[in-house]
């Protein structure tokens, strides 16, 4: 949730309601083996090595805000911690997150590349490789790096019906109809 106030600026709120702690005190979580929190001078703090911390830092980065109010809640109590943006922590992680978004999340979101039934999966899942003759949106031959990032998530041959993605930040310009789940061309607005 995005929040804004005159004294603190813009931030986000992340709420976690751990089922495993539904009937316990939150301070008891600090004693668990893979705990998400540590107790520091009687105060609970989100562990910087826990995946929740990584999630919070990435959300702060993506939303371009200064902080996240991390809320840990159960039936007995509530804990709120303000987690400041930590660019030193996050910057080394950004390239991997961008690769994951481009190569996994976006293709799945647009074309269900990984969750489609086997016989309907795109060539990417079956191991096809991008051809040398792939062309960019303007018809010019792309560089080797552009070939990997601009022609369909399946990296298959430049053939059949395709559709362009006009999003300014999309690394892939052309998609095969089959790879994005289209049977016919969408109607223009």
From TrEMBL:
Domain of life: Eukaryota
GO biological process: DNA repair
InterPro entries assigned to the protein according to its UniProt record, in alphabetical order: PDDEXK-like_dom_sf, Restrct_endonuc-II-like, Znf_FYVE_PHD, Znf_RING/FYVE/PHD
Name of the protein described by the UniProt record: YqaJ viral recombinase domain-containing protein
